[in-house]
Amino acid sequence: MRVDIISIFPEYFAPLDVSLIGKARHKGLLDIRLHQLREWTHDVHRTVDDTPYGGGPGMVMKPEPWGQAIDAVIAEESTPPRLIVPTPSGRPFTQEVALEYAKEPWLLFAPARYEGIDSRVMAEYGPRLRVDEVSIGDYVLAGGEAAVLVIVEAVGRLLPGVLGNAGSVADDSFAPGAMAGLLEGPVYTKPPVWRGHEVPAILLSGNHGAIARWRRDEALRRTAAKRPELAARLAGQALDKRDREVLDQVSHPGDAPAAETT
Ligand code: 6GU
């Protein structure tokens, strides 16, 4: 996959040289190219922002440098990239969106500073580049750069050959499949006792069926406790009798435990 990022802070993306994404770049699985937006300004101050029409606080990014920068990048290939504009007013970036982006051969990111990019830039490229304005959560960042790092990491790890163990993608919280809609439960490694805390005995039992059931119970409990809105959506899904017992236990903790069936 090719990824281009146009920003006034290309140095912000140094972390993309590290760890999983850094290795994917070395292996040639990810071709990330950084561009300094100010290269497409023509005044002595290399101005990229101006005051907002209609008044109000802050500054807005001027359309001309963005237009010239995007034109220069997209001219390099005949098939255009998907244009992703991070903004707190975008549609939510979810695992589903990450899977959608992972199918694209080429992504172009346009992270903004200040109050955002003049809206005519999105209007200009919308029809041609399938412009997507996305938000990574309900909070406000100082700029879109950190959001680009988040999106590139979420998408990059889904690309074939990037993760050593393909199974870890299938097990992700939010991944489609048997554990769809559930948060992952707790995990443990050696030693079996650490500072008096024991690893749950079931995980040492070698009983793979019982371990899978225990993990599902823990995932259900954690989801109900930390993400009640996700747990509520589970109710309409394929839950077995034990699943429903575990969820009932979380919502009515005072009740007697369900009788063991063997
Ligand atoms: Cl994508 N950008 C900014 N500036 N703030 C955000 C965001 C993006 N997503 C959540 N907050």
From TrEMBL:
Record text on subunit structure and interactions: Homodimer.
Residue positions binding S-adenosyl-L-methionine: I136, G137, D138, Y139, V140, L141
GO biological process per UniProt: methylation
Annotated coiled-coil segments of the chain: none
CDD domains on file: TrmD-like
InterPro entries, per database record: Alpha/beta_knot_MTases (IPR029028), tRNA_m1G_MeTrfase_C_sf (IPR023148), tRNA_m1G_MeTrfase_TrmD (IPR002649), tRNA_m1G_MTases_N (IPR029026), tRNA_MeTrfase_TRMD/TRM10 (IPR016009)
Pfam families: tRNA_m1G_MT (PF01746)
Record localization: Cytoplasm
Primary location: cytoplasm
Keyword Protein transport carried by entry: no
EC number: 2.1.1.228
SUPFAM superfamilies assigned: alpha/beta knot
Annotated catalysed reactions: guanosine(37) in tRNA + S-adenosyl-L-methionine = N(1)-methylguanosine(37) in tRNA + S-adenosyl-L-homocysteine + H(+)
Source superkingdom: Bacteria
GO MF term (any one): tRNA (guanine(37)-N1)-methyltransferase activity
UniProt keyword DNA damage, yes or no: no
Protein name: tRNA (guanine-N(1)-)-methyltransferase
UniProt keyword terms in alphabetical order: Cytoplasm, Methyltransferase, S-adenosyl-L-methionine, Transferase, tRNA processing
Domain tRNA methyltransferase TRMD/TRM10-type: 1-231
Purpose: Specifically methylates guanosine-37 in various tRNAs.
Region of interest: Disordered: 242-262
UniProt record similarity statement: Belongs to the RNA methyltransferase TrmD family.
NCBIfam families recorded: PRK00026.1 (NF000648), trmD (TIGR00088)
